[in-house]
Specification:
This protein is α+β, with helices and mostly antiparallel strands and about 200 residues long. It has helices spanning about 15-20, 45-55, 55-60, 110-115, 125-130, 165, 170-190; strands spanning about 5-10, 10-15, 20-25, 40-45, 80, 90, 95, 100, 135, 140-145, 160-165. The chain has 2 domains: about 1-35 and about 135-200, no CATH class; about 40-130, no CATH class. The two termini are about 25 Å apart.
Length: about 200
């Protein structure tokens, strides 16, 4: 990434790969297999506290493959991490080989519970869980290659129908707001990337 040409929005710097890589037709995060959720996620302590505040509601949307005891939901130790608002984070536990919040159908119980309450699907969900395969490290926004080549929903290509940033539009609006996301579209158009051939348009 050339730091002189990199896009900056709010406190974030955006990696070029969000604009120069993408997904072929019918692929991408819209076809999520939930494999990325199996290992759990690190959450800010405030996110952990919000989940625990609504633990009784969330428990109602868990199944037999998940632990009903909230004391088993998070790892025992906190970690320092400047990428989280509080500067500290804690991981969700794994149970039956998957994140405690992932049910047998591959659905997030936190998200299901929020929707059942008439709230936004991401009202209680940890930020980094929402964003994946977008990652934020040191205020640099990248594509996370953890499942590149392993899962079609997380495998990008140099020839694509939709660039990464558009495939993750809702997630990036959640991070930046609509005005911030519009800056990404402007950057993409100004670089001429949207005019390099029909395979790069939607």
């Amino acid at each position: 990434m050339n730091p002189d040409s990199a896009l900056r929005v709010n406190q974030y710097t955006f990696s070029d790969e969000l604009f120069s890589q993408g997904f072929t037709q019918g692929r991408g995060p819209c076809t999520c297999t939930s494999v990325c959720c199996e290992g759990g996620v690190y959450t800010d302590l405030a996110e952990r506290d919000r989940i625990m505040e609504f633990r009784e509601i969330i428990r109602k949307h868990m199944d037999a493959t998940q632990p009903q005891d909230p004391a088993l939901w998070f790892e025992p130790s906190e970690h320092e991490d400047a990428d989280f608002p509080s500067g500290r984070c804690i991981g969700t536990e794994e149970y039956n080989g998957k994140c405690v919040f992932l049910d047998s159908k591959g659905r997030c119980s936190i998200q299901v519970a929020a929707v059942a309450q008439g709230l936004d699907r991401w009202a209680w969900k940890p930020l980094f869980c929402i964003l994946f395969p977008i990652e934020v490290s040191g205020n640099v926004v990248n594509y996370d290659p953890m499942l590149q080549g392993e899962q079609p929903c997380c495998t990008t290509q140099p020839d694509f129908s939709i660039p990464v940033f558009r495939a993750c539009r809702d997630e990036l609006i959640h991070l930046l707001g609509q005005e911030g996301y519009d800056r990404l579209e402007e950057h993409y158009r100004n670089r001429g990337l949207a005019k390099e051939g029909s395979s790069r348009n939607i």
